[in-house]
Amino acid sequence: MSHSFNTVVLRKPYLLFLGEETSPLKAKTAFGLRDWAADSCVGQMHMLGGTVELGLPELDPAAAFAAGARSLLIGVTPVGGRIPAHWAPILLAAVHAGLDIVSGLHTPLQSVPGLARAAADAGVRLVDVRRPPDELPRASGKRRS
Are 16 and 45 in contact (CB under 8 A)? Predict the structure, then answer.
């Protein structure tokens, strides 16, 4: 039995967002992408106080877009796996620069105030990788062929 459902293809390359993270252990996603998909990473972006270093150029969203980035990918896990409210201006700047935003955190990107509207206006996508596509088949408990 075959199923067809829409999968979201992430737009490459990425700007890896590190927030204000100081622990490399909380930046496993960013390090994994840097190590295993280096040609898909154009830069990194810190907030004030962030000390995690990937060895990539430090870029803001507009400079990253000019360098070819098409998605800002959240590469860190803040406390509780939630998007802190003070990240909203950075995420909005990324959307305004033309970048999709990709998140694996528990907070849906749509719940960041003003972000969904800004993304729609800019023609970019908010991609929550924790949320499976609606068309993804789910187990029913019945035996399959």
Answer: yes
